[in-house]
Amino acid sequence: MNSIEIRELTKEYGRTRAVDHLTFEVLPGRVTGFLGPNGAGKSTTMRLLLGLDRATSGTATIGGQRFTDFPDPLHRVGALLDAQAAHGGRTARAHLSFLAAANRIPARRVEEVLERSGIASAAKRRIKTFSLGMRQRLGIAAALLGDPGVLLLDEPTNGLDPEGIIWVRELMRTLAAEGRTILVSSHLMSETAAFADHLVVLGQGKLLADTSMEEFIDARSTPRVRLRTSDPVRLRAALAREGLEMVGADDGRWTVEGIQAERLGPLAAREGIPMLELSDERASLEQAYLDLTADHAQFAATR
Q: How far apart are CA 129 and CA 127, in angstroms?
């Protein structure tokens, strides 16, 4: 199994507890978004998983083993934590070739990941000449080098242009469909909503949510529909009998809180009221996330 298991994980730096008795699991076959305000403990958790820091207590394992115990770590886990980490004086090909040689990965794999990440044409360029987006692509190429079953990506779309963002999104979906375990930390809610199936949300080192994307949003949404009708007077009266109120908007549409389309549609049909448009409105991931984490942000501006 390639699942990631976090059990009662705690990390303290002096008097600061960065990760606080954290327990969750990341399963194969789906993309898990890893969310939380700055200082929530996301990067610390990833570092603990990779053995870059030592836990104060608890465990962080992959398939039941610690990362540092793997004899072939790049074949098991690929990670992008810092796109700036690669030595600027090396070429992209030299950087990947060094990693491949050190981990007994065939040289042909270097060319494969250069192609897959879209930077084959820049393989002979020194990394110090790369834009942030190109460094991100190189970091993802390095993470894919060992064809691992687990990927840990910290802000993988940072610095990418729209084409690059779409590429990362499709890559993650493809890798998850192949049965791999994908954990992606991001501050971009719109992007997370586009690629994640599941969410793990932290706040001040503690677990705030571990649920599917749909359940996370639905739990923080008030049922509401948006509609257009050619007979708003009759519909308003019909809804009033149900204790519901129509609220008009400038674009000629109406909203009704406390009801879903699957209930309002039949109600209108029974009354013979024509509906020109009817759809459910849900909170966005950003709205649901801010609602959950409002009391857990380390830094917040005053209004």
A: 5
> 201 forms bridges with which residues in the sheet?
35, 209
| Residues 3, 30 contacting (CB under 8 angstroms) | no
Distance of CA 140 to the CA centre of its chain: 15
Q: What is the spatial distance between Cα 220 and Cα 216, in angstroms, rounded to a whole number?
A: 7
Over residues 272-278, the mean pLDDT reads 95
* Confidence band of 296 (pLDDT split at 50, 70, 90): low
The pair of three-digit structure tokens given for residue 300, joined into one six-digit string? 């917040």
Q: What 8-state DSSP symbol labels residue 65?
A: B
β-partners of residue 224 are: 257, 281
CATH 3.30.70 domain range(s) in the chain: 224-281
E strand residue ranges, the chain? 4-13, 16-26, 30-35, 57-62, 77-80, 150-154, 181-185, 198-203, 206-212, 224-229, 246-248, 254-257, 275-281
Report how far Cα 25 is from the mean position of its chain's Cα atoms: 15
Distance CA 85, CA 94 (A): 14
pLDDT digits (tens, 9 = 90+) for 108-153: 999 999 999 999 999 999 999 999 999 999 999 999 999 999 999 9
Q: Could you read off the pLDDT of 42-99 as tens digits, one per residue?
A: 999 999 999 999 999 999 999 999 999 999 999 999 999 988 888 999 999 999 999 9
Specify the CATH number for 4-212; select among 3.20.20.370, 3.40.50.1220, 3.40.50.20, 3.40.50.300.
3.40.50.300
